[in-house]
């Protein structure tokens, strides 16, 4: 392990320790407050739970509307919710709508894992946070909101990145895991740790206008994530919210559906006899639709939950299982340094002076281009370029002046797609003088002209 990794581990260990100590302090303070208020105002508390009434009067009042729904099992169900310990990983697009419904329903203990801080671009969908929590740890912001919603709930925060070394320690003590994260790397890790500990996982994901939801390793007998996806998706096919965008209420619906499934698991509405593995797919656009597919049972050969598992606790904790390697990463670095220019060079050599015959090509999707773009640029996406199969005639339909001798500078959002486009233009179209702008349009905005809108 490099010294940087060691330092990172140490920082995470201390953050965990810090979270635990803060928790203890808060509990001690709360107990002191309660003792004080009992002494002064209520020497003989009337509303404590008893054998006859297992909930406090306040709890009967608070949860009355859901207790009278027959499916919840009334008071018995409410006690199950109170005793439940649910760990939510990710307080983002899924975690934000999920968490208040868990707290509101009276789930007694909620753990939240997230190392990220609130960014203004999160707020259209991560509505547990608000404009005043920008810059705060999402864990702290979420905890503050949940405490206000329902002070009966015990909220523990883990402001760390979940990884091979801390996952078992964090999961132990919880009876249900909610996967609200956004990358295959973390999904496989959560699955494998949950399988090893025999924990059920409610898992969802979504991007743009759609998403999906399932229950994994139900009661340690249902199929796991690896039964469904033994090999990870190609890194090029995985799109994040940052790249693909996301509609707030569409991902919100999935977070809320996760809360429904969590309640059903806790209340015992699924049993090992009748649980049928499923995958629910939701689309918000153009018409809202919800389809549920029946899935296969556990795979005997599954590396995690099968009869001879290779993904053991030891293999995970000693990092024999390398999730980043397993899931792979995109190879964008397809241009050599001579094919790349900095945003300063771009500004000085191409924008400030008129270089005759030079073509500026922005390869972002059209609706991105419409939000903001530089003057005198053409807009053709990488996909469209690829579909032209290297035909200069096709390219001339969009850029009439283009020839094999043209001078082309390519620009995209972050400087990844522009490299792919540079390769296509040089290798497939045979245009010799093509350069890509490192860091893309956003780096240009950051370093040269911050008055242009960024999204
Ligand atoms: N391994 C992990 N450990 C802790 N938190 C994680 C881990 N993986 C993902 N998360 C958290 O899960 C949340 C996922 O939220 P979401 O998918 O809405 O994306 P985001 O990262 O908040 O936003 P954007 O993709 O727009 O930058 C994030 O808050 C992220 O920090
Ligand atoms: Zn499996």
TrEMBL record:
GO terms for molecular function: adenylyltransferase activity; ATP binding; metal ion binding; thiosulfate-cyanide sulfurtransferase activity; URM1 activating enzyme activity. GO terms for biological process: protein urmylation; tRNA wobble position uridine thiolation. ATP binds at residues 93, 114, 121-125, 138, 182-183. Its main location: cytoplasm. It is found in: Cytoplasm, Cytosol. Binds 1 zinc ion per subunit. SMART domains: RHOD. Residues 27-52 are annotated as: Disordered. HAMAP family: MOCS3_Uba4. This is Needs CLA4 to survive protein 3. It comes from Maudiozyma humilis (Sour dough yeast). The gene is UBA4.
